[in-house]
């Protein structure tokens, strides 16, 4: 197996990104066989992963936003492959990459090809997989309803502004949560079930999460009498304020029942649930991350 052979799975919107082209050319000059495939529509990332693994690529690179990273990671985990993954963050929030210390410039991101890959957990909910975090309630609505144009212009600030404009629509959802030695029920404003630490453009809902402990971090923000104040704190990024009112836990699995439905967002993939089971998927994928990545519990 040629260890200097990799395939970049690139989101179609980035096909003409000159920084990406220069980064690929630089790696090729260093002796890498670095091939590129571009996605066009839903399902392309999964198909390209399947084809790449069948062709014997030992390393894949996911170039795009959090959704692209999730799609590639899910396909690789489903295949139970020993191939490894490099992240080239090209989205707006890049929440997992930022928390992990992955460089945001294409050339520096590709330099992680030289770092050894390490096993990393994933999160699962029903038949879906997420690399970073599943969010629920008002926070997931903000992420899902922030326009692409606004994200392109303002970056992560776009989520904050969308949240401000949607305050009139704030409402809580009743839900029951059950896990090992953990039970809670009540009205929920926001929910985070994290393998990673932050979502929605930098909000650290799960600031103590590790990607190699076989557990998911849970952050439930209950509906308080001052709902607007709580959400103002949440959207402003004041994590200490959010944690002071949140119900938190660290669990291998969590069951959620929401009789009237609960909106979820899995690394950019929206879904609605009435009853779901979250679970940690230990060492489900091998990632090339910085040597000093703060998401690892073990050195």
How would you explain this protein's 3D organization?
The longest helix is centred in the first third of the chain and has 14 residues, at 66-79. It is elongated and about 60 Å long. Strands 1, 2, 3, 4, 5, 6, 7, 8, 9, 10, 11, 12 and 13 form a 13-stranded mixed beta sheet that branches. It has ten helices and 13 strands. The protein starts with a strand and ends in a 12-residue tail after the last strand. It is α+β, with helices and mostly antiparallel strands and 299 residues long. The model is unreliable at 139-168 and 226-230 (pLDDT under 50).
Instruction: Give the total of beta strands.
Output: 13
Number of DSSP helices? 10
Q: Given the C-alpha coordinates, what overall shape results?
A: elongated
Indicate the proportion of strand residues. Answer: 35-45%
Structural class: alpha+beta
In the predicted model, the low-confidence regions spanning at least 5 consecutive residues are: 139-168, 226-230
The description of the largest β-sheet is: 13 strands, mixed
Compute the separation of the termini in Å. Answer: 28 Å
Query: What share of the residues lie within helices?
Result: 25-40%
Average predicted local confidence, pLDDT: 85
> What is the gyration radius calculated from CA atoms?
19 Å
Order of helices and strands: EHEHEHEHHEEEHHHEEEHHEEE
Q: What's the quick description here?
A:
The chain is an alpha+beta fold and 299 residues long. It has helices at 18-29, 44-54, 66-79, 95-100, 106-110, 138-145, 148-154, 157-165, 227-236, 239-245, and strands at residues 5-10, 33-38, 59-64, 84-89, 118-125, 128-130, 133-137, 173-179, 182-194, 216-222, 247-251, 253-266, 269-287.
């Amino acid at each position: 197996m040629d260890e200097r052979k990799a395939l970049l799975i690139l989101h179609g919107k980035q096909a003409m990104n000159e920084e990406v082209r220069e980064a690929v050319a630089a790696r090729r000059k260093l002796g890498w066989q670095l091939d590129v495939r571009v996605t066009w529509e839903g399902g392309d990332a999964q198909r390209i992963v399947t084809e790449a693994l069948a062709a014997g690529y030992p390393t894949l690179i996911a170039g795009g936003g959090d959704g692209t990273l999730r799609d590639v990671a899910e396909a690789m985990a489903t295949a139970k492959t020993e191939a490894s993954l490099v992240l080239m963050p090209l989205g707006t929030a890049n929440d997992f990459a930022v928390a992990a210390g992955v460089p945001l410039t294409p050339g520096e991101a590709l330099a992680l090809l030289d770092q050894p890959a390490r096993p990393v957990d994933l999160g699962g909910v029903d038949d879906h997989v997420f690399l970073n975090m599943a969010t629920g309630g008002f926070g997931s609505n903000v992420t899902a309803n922030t326009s692409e144009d606004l994200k392109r212009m303002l970056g992560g600030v776009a989520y904050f502004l969308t949240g401000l404009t949607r305050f009139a629509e704030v409402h809580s959802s009743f839900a029951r949560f059950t896990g090992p030695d953990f039970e809670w029920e009540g009205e929920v404003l926001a929910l985070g079930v994290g393998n990673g630490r932050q979502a929605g453009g930098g909000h650290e809902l799960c600031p103590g999460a590790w990607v190699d402990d076989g557990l998911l971090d849970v952050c439930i923000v209950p509906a308080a009498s001052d709902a607007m104040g709580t959400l103002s704190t949440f959207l402003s990024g004041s994590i200490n304020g959010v944690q002071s009112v949140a119900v938190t836990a660290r669990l291998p699995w969590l069951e959620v029942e929401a009789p009237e439905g609960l909106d979820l967002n899995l690394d950019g993939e929206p879904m609605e649930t009435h009853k779901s089971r979250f679970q940690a998927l230990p060492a489900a994928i091998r990632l090339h991350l910085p040597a000093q990545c703060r998401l690892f519990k073990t050195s």
